[in-house]
Amino acid sequence: MININGGEILKILAIGDVCCDGGCEMLLKTLPRLKKEHNIDLTVVNGENSASQNGISPASAQIIFNAGADVITGGNHTLHRRDIRPYIESNPRVLRPHNLPNSLAGSGYCLIDKGFCLVAVINLLGQVYLEGQEASNPFLAADEIIEKAKADGANIILVDLHAEATSEKRAMGFYLDGKVSAVFGTHTHVQTSDAQILPRGTAYITDLGMTGPVNSVLGVEPELIIDRFKNGTKGRFSSAEGRCSLEGAIFTVDAKTGIAQSAETIRIF
């Protein structure tokens, strides 16, 4: 696509956390049409909860790719299932957070060649309210992997920060403003209303939202979550059923400069 200055632009679609079978089905049904209608060049989907219960499996990853994803990002549940570990080692387009220990399976970085530009996709994990994770400081990790992306010749750099705290995500957005093309948050499963272009040209949204059951608490049957909050009951979660939505954002980026031109949210039922 050509922008108003005569240069090429890339239209990037980022999809929020795909949850359970319902989210996978919604993605399969909706994503191909969405990409066509908006002339999408690159699609990044967070799939860390796409398997039944939680985590990601080879089967759910394949569904996400079949729907039209170019890259699958992850989070704190990415490596929970043993069967994903050999799969993630063999497929460089399935990411887990870069700031997890190097000894773990997979990578938090991949490079996509679009012909007229190179796109780096980076996956990071936040630290605030995510105790028990082995993640190192995501700000320092961002510095290191962005340096690699630029050395690899990336024109456009995208960052999925999988984090709980809105303050940590906002801080990362401003920290990386002008250094990357887009920063989008995942993990909280609730779409935020702050899609914007930051002062130095980076597209940003605190959380893309969720692709999964509408009448749920983060994809889970509401009664189970209510019982946990009210009575302290701890048991196995069950995915909610019924109508699903797809949530995310579309970013338009100058392919040569890497500067974002627009950021807008999407929500489809």
Verbal overview:
The protein is an alpha/beta fold. The protein starts with 8 loop residues before the first strand and ends with a strand. The strands form 2 sheets. Strands 1, 2, 3, 4, 11, 12 and 13 form a 7-stranded mixed β-sheet that branches. Strands 5-6-7-8-10-9 form a 6-stranded mixed β-sheet, covered by helices on one side. It has a single domain, classed as Metallo-dependent phosphatases (Purple Acid Phosphatase, chain A, domain 2, 4-Layer Sandwich).
Summarize the SSE layout with pairings.
Elements: E1 9-15, E2 17-18, H1 20-37, E3 42-46, H2 58-67, E4 71-73, H3 84-90, E5 109-113, E6 118-125, H4 138-151, E7 156-162, H5 166-176, E8 182-186, E9 196-197, E10 203-205, E11 210-213, H6 222-231, E12 244-254, E13 260-268
Parallel strand pairs: 1-3, 2-11, 3-4, 6-7, 7-8, 8-10
Antiparallel strand pairs: 1-12, 5-6, 9-10, 11-12, 12-13
Helix pairs in contact: 1-2
Rg, rounded, reads: 17 Å
CATH top level is Alpha Beta
β-strand number? 13
> What is the approximate shape?
globular
Helix count equals 6
For the record, what is the CATH homologous superfamily label? Answer: Metallo-dependent phosphatases
Summing up helix and strand content along with how strands pair, one would put the structural category as alpha/beta
Average pLDDT, rounded to a whole number, is 94
Give the termini separation.
28 Å
Largest sheet, strands/sense/barrel: 7 strands, mixed
CATH architecture classification name:
4-Layer Sandwich
Enumerate the spans where pLDDT stays under 50 for 5 or more consecutive residues. none
Instruction: Bin the strand percentage.
Output: 25-35%
Tally of distinct domains: 1
CATH T-level fold name? Purple Acid Phosphatase, chain A, domain 2
**What share of the residues lie within helices?**
25-40%
The ordered H/E elements are EEHEHEHEEHEHEEEEHEE
